[in-house]
Amino acid sequence: MSTAPPPPRVPRRRPARTVLAALTSVAALTALAACAGPPRGGADGPGASFALSAGTPKPKGDIDSFTWAIYAEPPTLDYTMAFDYPQNTILSNVCESLMRWTPGLTLEPGLAEKATNPDPTTWVYDLRRGVRFHNGGTMTADDVVFSLGRQTDPKNSAAWAQNFQNVASVRKTGPLQVTVKLKKPDSQFPQYMATAAGVVASKAGVTAAGADYGTSGGLACTGPFALGAWQKGQSLELTRFDGHWGTRAKAGKVVFRFLTDPSARTNAMLSGDVDGGYLIPTESYGRLKDSGVGTLYFGEGLSTVNLGITNMKGALGDVRVRRALSLALDRSGFVKAGLGGAGSATSSLTTRAAWAGAPPEVRKAAFDGLPPTTRNVEKARALVKEAGATGTSLTVATSSIGQDVSLLATAVQAAGSEIGLRINLKSVAPNAFTALFTDPEAREGIDMFPLTYYDSITDPLDLLTNFRTGAYLNFAGYSDKRYDGLIEQATATYDKDRRLRVESELQRHAAEQLPWIPVAEWPTALFLSKRITGAPTTIAYMYYPWAADVGAAGPGGAGSTDAGATDAGSTDAGATDAKAPGSGATP
User: Fold this and answer.
1) Where are the alpha helices (DSSP H) in 153-281?
2) Which range marks the domain in which residue 382 is found?
3) What is the per-residue pLDDT across 5-37, written as a single tens digit (0 to 9) for each?
4) 580 assigned to some structural domain
5) For residue 126, what is the domain's CATH number?
6) Which residue in 199, 266, 319, 422 could disulfide with 284, CB within 3.0 to 4.6 Å?
């Protein structure tokens, strides 16, 4: 579910995607989350002057080890709480799911070699034979039933629990077969089986670890890497698992260094102390691109930067005040300063790439008629006056986690001052920013906060469902019966085209009511030193074992600054619709 160097991704259910927020350059809770079509070459917005790369050059050989910068240390690596960037960036290489998100953002078989949908409320997963866990055991259907069951156990407070709300039962129907019965048709459930929601761990291993699972020892998973030494507050190592059922990892070891300061992360890349990283501080794009020590890439991010509304009991409960703030925000200025020009202003809560598979008329219906991204201070001031909110004090959270967070908070304050609102800034420490997504007490006294949301699946409903009554990321308690009804209708519709038509209505409703205020679309940023190459450029790294693809760049390094870059003239280039392979129905 959603920001942190980008703020953490927002949690999904619970929040599924609780997002660790901190846009460090971006993100948001996945928690609860988990998630679009950034402009290509300036095609979609002011200040956009970057190109998207479909990938990075293939490695020319194996490598003993490489070092990766990460903006925060995960509080746990328990897959049920993998809702944010730090957790998933690491965990995606250690724990695998029933299905798998590919670098191209499509769905393919994972630990399940086949997924079938014999009727609207049944999904059958046939498992791979001989899959070994890091602790020596062999995967069976019992491990799958146990692992999915942990997501719904109230004692675990799982970030992905919301994604299991329509699950009636998960049963072993053969030594290597698991059948999921749904209470009603659910087009989203099979797609989430490629995220941390679908992770399979050893029942024996998790049980033996008890309360320490995820914080010490092993994770008892099946991925190409196993958890190695974890020096709390400093670094974490992954070691190659030679018993992996799939392709052998090219690196023997990966060392993740926790560098919470954006300048420290950038300097570590420039000096060669670390070999690469995702979620590059936006203020460092220029320095890294021109450094000559490596390559800065941009790829599909399925991410939007938003202003999350956390309190509708006061002035922000009047939609006119929310619309006024949206009208007064300098989105283009934020994209230029806060996102380093790598992004595009938007008035859509969903990314354009999330609609890549929609029929042209549906895409048009989803985006035509949305509010303009240009400012109208005079109209905004009039709305505030009409709502009787002139002079009202509101508080927005800010953080040094990244300039995208701090500059958006400042932009909100500036917009408020122009239209008669008094916006106060409340500074939150980078490591505490994530709590805004998961802990109502942490949001006390805060009316808004910068929130970057990334989709965990290539479906607009991933984001739009967050405004359903009672949803985990519905921080302010927004509620509308008609909206809830459309969510139910879209969720129950397996036919993609029909579902997207319903979702276009949801999109327009969200744009009118602004439960969050959309600001910009943001691509994935990746830096690789000349030593290594092979990492995917897209946000697939959240659930795909990306580190296994990283190897030696060989003589000459990973290429020039534009190596692998594609001039994305098409807003949806590189994004494809996620489908469950072998299924009788399209999610």
Assistant:
1) 189-192, 203-209, 262-271
2) 1-575
3) 344 444 333 333 323 233 223 233 222 333 322
4) no
5) 3.40.190.10
6) 266
